[in-house]
Design a protein that fits this description.
By secondary structure, this protein is of the alpha+beta class. It is 34% helix and 23% strand. It contains eight helices and 18 strands.
């Protein structure tokens, strides 16, 4: 064992602040991406006084998840607004932030190696879970606090750039969507269409095809399922295409791909019959396909359902004008997304290198 590795238990302690006065109403859950999320729990009739109140720089985790999903959801609270979490979630904090930086510890928790370790400990435990004792016994490198802060600053610089890029992407999307609605939706009377427009069905404008089972071998081409990219394979069955979630919770979700990709059997491919995929994407997006699914149990979108949707068909000149404008916006967005991919890889590399951090006092 390297001399700078210490048990986490040396630096943390449990916090048991309950919502006795019911003053805190902001209930949050923990996501698999190690972030807070809006809760999906039914809390009608629930005694909220036993829920745990969290303050800034405190952690919450779900010890039973590793045995189910091979990942330990653990989240560090960084905002000032109090929130509550389930009483089943342990809440803890750093005893002395001059010895261990909370954000440095959270970086360690984000490592894939940590999740594998937690899963291994679950497999070895009698109760099949990852407990407080196991967490406290986990060894991490603890360099001087100044070194920790340097590492955190480097990580946050990358993370902040990713967040900024996501905001830019969102603004580009909002701009394109606003232009689409201004030109093709707002003020359009379906009973009295503008000159050159006509009513039709979606099949007139778009070709839909069901996806296929994905190849076995991994590679460079993204595979699109119902919830976006699920992995990468060595073959492709589409290029410059729109993928539509076909079944399940992500039924009707839309994804654009300029390059080569594989559309899986959990998705449907959509291609413009008039070579205007940008227009097609915003047309499909405006139709809110997730609200049109069939099935009483598992939501389902079919080619037949899509083909039969009645839509106005704008005059070709207006579609072409929008297509050129939207392509410029999306080309910019595509560059930003690729930058975020590289930044995400860099962030993962930084996390993986935490294990090599040496205690400067020993140098």
């Amino acid at each position: 064992m390297k001399s700078n590795y210490k048990p986490i238990g040396n630096y943390i302690r449990k916090v048991e602040t309950r919502n006795r006065d019911l003053k805190v109403t902001r209930l949050l859950g923990l996501s698999m991406t190690k972030e807070f999320r809006e809760t999906t729990s039914n809390i009608v009739g629930t005694d909220m006084s036993v829920y745990k109140v969290m303050s800034k720089y405190q952690f919450a985790c779900d010890f039973m998840s590793p045995i189910r999903v091979n990942k330990l959801p653990v989240v560090l609270k960084l905002d000032d607004e109090p929130n509550i979490v389930s009483p089943a979630y342990p809440v803890f904090e750093i005893k002395d932030r001059n010895e261990l930086d909370p954000e440095y510890l959270m970086m360690w928790f984000r490592r894939t190696e940590f999740d594998r370790y937690a899963t291994f400990k679950c497999d070895a435990a009698i109760r099949g879970g990852y407990e407080w004792t196991e967490l406290c016994e986990t060894l991490i490198p603890v360099p001087p606090i100044t070194k920790q802060q340097e590492i955190v600053k480097e990580y946050n610089t990358i993370q902040n750039r990713i967040a900024l890029n996501q905001q830019l992407i969102q603004k580009l999307e909002e701009t394109a969507q606003a232009i689409y609605r201004e030109w093709f939706v707002e003020g359009i009377d379906l009973e009295n269409l503008p000159e050159g427009w006509e009513m039709g069905i979606l099949e007139d404008l778009v070709e839909f095809k069901n996806g296929k089972s994905k190849p076995i071998e991994s590679g460079i081409y993204p595979v699109y399922g119902g919830n976006g990219i699920i992995e990468f394979v060595n073959e492709f069955n589409n290029e410059n295409v729109i993928a539509i979630g076909r079944v399940g919770a992500y039924c009707g979700s839309l994804y654009r791909e300029l390059g080569k990709c594989w559309i899986s059997d959990n998705a449907i491919s959509a291609n413009s019959k008039i070579s205007c995929n940008m227009f097609t994407f915003y047309l499909l997006n405006d139709l809110k396909l997730n609200e049109r699914s069939e099935g009483t149990g598992q939501p389902l979108i079919t080619q037949g359902l899509l083909n039969s949707i009645v839509v106005p068909k704008p005059k070709p000149e207006l579609i072409d004008k929008f297509e050129k404008y939207a392509k410029k916006l999306f080309a910019h967005e595509y560059i930003i997304e690729r930058e975020n991919q590289k930044l995400t890889e860099l962030k993962a590399l930084l996390l993986s290198r935490l294990a090599t951090v040496e205690n400067e006092n020993n140098n």
